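Before our next group meeting I need something from you. Please put the record directly below this note.
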Amino acid sequence: MAVKPVLRMGDPRLLLVSAPVREFGTAQLRELITDMEDTMRAAGGAGLAAPQIGVLQRVVIFGGGRTERYPDADAVPYTVLINPKLKPLRGGKDEDWEGCLSVPGLRGIVPRYRRLRYRGATSRGSRSTERFRLPCPRRAA
């Protein structure tokens, strides 16, 4: 539908708590997801949360194949996750370089759990639960 401007670090809206999505399968939710997809692809991102485009709802998208920003990363299936909840699983953390569309031009070493479970809903309100495991050890800590 439309490429939206990505809010930048320092924008006070990025510090606000987002509201859970309560209605699924609506035209408004479909439009939001499409706008997020268009924006993420146009920016060459690997993921995007609705607050990054100024919409204070708990919606995140990620994956969809390889990106120029992470040419050596394994492809991650495209995922829409609404009202996400993350639970770390055993296995510790690894660190690797990562960027954020809201902090353009900068990267930093970010700790990430090696294994986690994420739960949420699809755009139609069905439950979604997945386990994620980093495909290989990242850089030595």
